[in-house]
Amino acid sequence: MNFKANKKLGQNFLINRDIAISEAAHAEDKIVLEIGPGRGMLTEELCNVATHVIAIEKDERLFNYLTSKLQYKNLTLLNKDFFSCTNSELMLDKVDILISNIPYNLSSKVISWLHHNNIEAILCLQKEFVEHMLATSGSKNYSKLSVICALSFKIIEIMKVSKKSFIPKPKIDSQIIYLKPLASSITEAEDNMINFIMQHKKKLLKNAVLDSSKNLNISHEKLILFLNKTPLSSERVFMLSPAQILQVARELSKLQK
Fold first, then answer.
1. Cα–Cα distance list, 70 to 29, 165, 235 (Å)
2. Dihedral angle of Cα 196, 202, 204, 206, to the nearest 10 degrees
3. How confident is the model at residue 5 (pLDDT cuts 50, 70, 90)?
4. Residues 64 and 156 in one domain
5. CATH of residue 24
6. 192 shares a domain with 166
7. Is residue 72 part of a domain?
8. Among 120-124, 136-140, 186-190, where is mean pLDDT lowest?
9. pLDDT tens digits, 205-223
10. Among 68, 199, 226, 227, which one is least packed by beta carbons within 10 Å?
11. How does pLDDT run across 96-105, given as a tens digit for each residue?
12. 155 and 213 in contact (C-beta within 8 Å)?
């Protein structure tokens, strides 16, 4: 099989079986989700140890290939866009973990999905993306992604993966990480507030909030009262910890009610 990778789908096929074996070690006796199985190397290793594997492949060419190649009784293959699948199709009430070398162009979307569905994961992501996930306040990579990840997951770096482990070869190396959901929850309103605040991360908090005022659905008077009361107003946003940013987001979301 020599399928050409679809750039629009962000395809890079794993060719290093040792990597697949390492990832699959976390699937033993579990029900596993896999996004974008590609040529099926990881899928095979998952099926060898997991109780059941639900693999979702959007590319019809690859889906047809995998259907004929992988004859495992504990495998369910779906030819769909992962994000259009129902909870029933994904068996979310039974799934233990998501394990995947996800298409890099879906990285942020998958993190958001995990955040909202409270599911643990083993993911292979581009090294630079992981650096943004793990960035701390005051660093140049600190972003909304960093804040949400710090508030939502315990993240453990497992191993680095050379770009030579994939075809076509990506421009940079990758990294496998483990994400364990934390008990803390963030509402949609709070998530939106964090997004607005972090869009102006280099500004003082009071300026970041005022610059976002049109999107906040809060009167100017209420915002001024809030900013005069909070001791964080004169701090630059990128210097605030994730907990402090969440605190501000929660207080602002209350003002919307």
1. 19, 22, 56
2. -10
3. low
4. yes
5. 3.40.50.150
6. no
7. yes
8. 186-190
9. 999 999 888 888 888 889 9
10. 68
11. 999 999 888 8
12. no
149 & 105 share domain: yes
Model confidence at 203: pLDDT above 60: yes
> Which residues have C-beta within 8 Å of that of residue 193, sequence separation ≥ 6?
216, 248, 249, 250, 252, 253
Neighbours of 188 (CB within 10 A): 9
Q: Give the pLDDT confidence score for residue 8 in this predicted structure.
A: 65
The H or E element spanning position 156 is strand 153-161
The tally of domains found in the chain comes to 2
Give the tokens for residue 199.
């869009």
- CATH number of the domain that 243 lies in? 1.10.8.100
**DSSP letters of 31-49?**
EEEEE--TTSHHHHHHHHH
Contact yes or no for 237/210 (Cβ under 8 A)? no
CA distance 46 to 87: 21
Q: Which of 181, 209, 238 is the last residue of a domain?
A: 181
- Burial class, 157, CB count within 10 angstroms (exposed 0-12 / middle 13-18 / buried 19+): exposed
Token digits of residue 57: 């492949």
Name which of 226, 220, 248, 224 is nearest 236 in CA terms: 248
Domain of residue 23 covers 7-181
CA atoms within 13 Å, Cβ hemisphere of 89: 13
> Are 114 and 228 found together in one domain?
no
Residue 1 has pLDDT above 60, yes or no: no
Q: Are residues 89 and 144 in the same domain?
A: yes
The whole model's pTM is what? 0.90
